[in-house]
Amino acid sequence: MQLVGNLDRAEQVLQQSLEITRQDKSTDIHSEILLSLGNLARLQQNTKGALEFYQQANATAISNRAKMQALLNWFSLLAETNDTAAAQSLLPQIQTQLALLPSNRDTVYANINFANSLMQFQHRLNASTTPNGLLSRIETANIIAAALDQSKSLNDRRAISYALGTLGKLYEQNQQFSI
């Protein structure tokens, strides 16, 4: 429904699904529905609603993967709204969750998505050092480099390409045109 632009119907279906899963929270399905509701609220420009859904998705997630996805979407929205104080408070949770994830494509993408959100903050603040307590551009580059190394060890060409593209974006943002 969301893909075809019927956002009201998408919200109805997600709310119905949420009601069904309220009783059984033994899987990440409940958290994933909350995450989808957050994404829908974000699409509808409802920042407050999206933040609430992302927080609930994080709180109800069972697996590290589901918790990580909720944290990354939450952090990304904070980057979009330039809320550095709230983002700074999420950093320890994100870093802890990233360390708990297994070595696979999802983890590579999670690291790159985290780096992209950091770069969004850094670009908005036009800071070459640590922007308001967030990670510096060097630390961001280290996250991308680690994701690149991990994607190479997995021999995942798509993940390698994504990591290299993100690293190039960081170089461009820093106006580092020669290596």
Description:
The chain is mostly helical and 179 residues long. The chain has helices spanning 7-21, 29-43, 47-60, 64-81, 84-100, 105-125, 137-153, 157-173. Helix 3 packs antiparallel against helix 4, helix 4 (64-81) runs antiparallel to helix 5 and helix 4 (64-81) runs parallel beside helix 6 (105-125). The longest helix has 21 residues, at 105-125. It is globular and about 55 Å long.
Characterize this entry briefly:
The protein has 179 residues and is mainly alpha-helical. The chain is 75% helix and 0% strand.
Number of helices: 8
Give helix and strand order, one letter per element, not per position: HHHHHHHH
Distance between the termini: 46 Å
Strand-pairing-aware structural class:
mainly alpha
Low-confidence stretches: none
Provide the β-strand percentage band.
under 5%
Number of strands: 0
Mean residue pLDDT = 89
Cα shape: globular
Radius of gyration (Å): 17 Å
Helix content: over 70%
Major sheet size, sense and barrel closure: none
Summary keywords:
single chain, 179 residues, mainly alpha, 0% strand, globular
Annotate the secondary structure layout:
Elements lengths: L6 H15 L7 H15 L3 H14 L3 H18 L2 H17 L4 H21 L11 H17 L3 H17 L6
Helix pairs in contact: 1-2, 2-3, 2-4, 3-4, 4-5, 4-6, 6-7, 6-8, 7-8
